[in-house]
Amino acid sequence: MSDPCIVGRLGGNEATGVYVHVDGTPHTMLERLGLIMARDGIETTLTTLASCHYGWTYLWPELDEGDAETNLGLPIHKGRVVQGYGFSYTLGPRMNSYTLTDARQHPMIGWAYFIDPAGGDVHWFDTRPGAPETAHVVTVWSRA
């Protein structure tokens, strides 16, 4: 199982995010978002994530070209390594405007993470069938 999720920006009338195909569970995704935001800051993180209109295979800060091709067998012809972020798709359907409602209706998306640009807190939701519709709010990076 790949554990897809969406990751994006909280704010305005509607929070929107981009599709991430692998490792979307809270245990993994919150740690990786924390590493990325601590290194790059909130706005750069949000801008970089949203710039990959076709979605991501992995958000994996340590991923490099060697991992992508040899260890994971990722389809290099369908994407690229974004240094410090992971592997993004470069073709296919646009997958960068998912909302929480979309995530709840999608049969594969199990989680949604929306980053508050004002402070970096992550509001995350379990979107699997039967899960409570409550939000969890966590701080995953140090503001120090």
Question: Quick gist of this model?
Answer:
The protein contains 4 helices and 8 strands, in the order ββααβαββαβββ. With 144 residues, the chain is an alpha+beta fold. It has one domain.
Describe this entry's structure for a reader.
- With 144 residues, the chain is an alpha+beta fold.
- The chain has one domain (5-138).
- The chain is 26% helix and 24% strand.
- The chain is built from 4 helices and 8 strands, in the order ββααβαββαβββ.
- It has helices spanning 26-40, 42-51, 65-71, 100-105; strands spanning 5-9, 16-20, 56-59, 79-82, 86-89, 111-115, 122-126, 136-138.
- The strands form 2 sheets. A 5-stranded mixed sheet has the order 2-1-6-7-8.
- Strand 4 (79-82) and strand 5 (86-89) form a beta hairpin.
- Helix 1 (26-40) packs across helix 2.
- The longest helix is centred in the N-terminal third of the chain and has 15 residues, at 26-40.
- The protein is globular.
- The mean pLDDT is 88.
Which features does this protein show?
about 140 residues, alpha+beta, five-stranded mixed beta sheet, three-stranded antiparallel beta sheet, 4 helices, about 25% helix, globular
Q: Which series of helices and strands comes N to C?
A: EEHHEHEEHEEE
Name the average pLDDT: 88
Q: Uncertain segments of ≥5 residues (pLDDT<50)?
A: none
Strand content: 15-25%
Query: What strand line-up does the widest sheet have?
Result: 2-1-6-7-8
End-to-end separation in angstroms reads 37 Å
How many helices does DSSP assign?
4
Number of domains: 1
The total count of strands amounts to 8
Oligomer: single chain
Shape call: globular
| Main β-sheet description | 5 strands, mixed
- Radius of gyration, Cα only, in angstroms? 14 Å
Which structural class do the helices and strands define?
alpha+beta
Task: Indicate the percent of residues in helices.
Answer: 25-40%
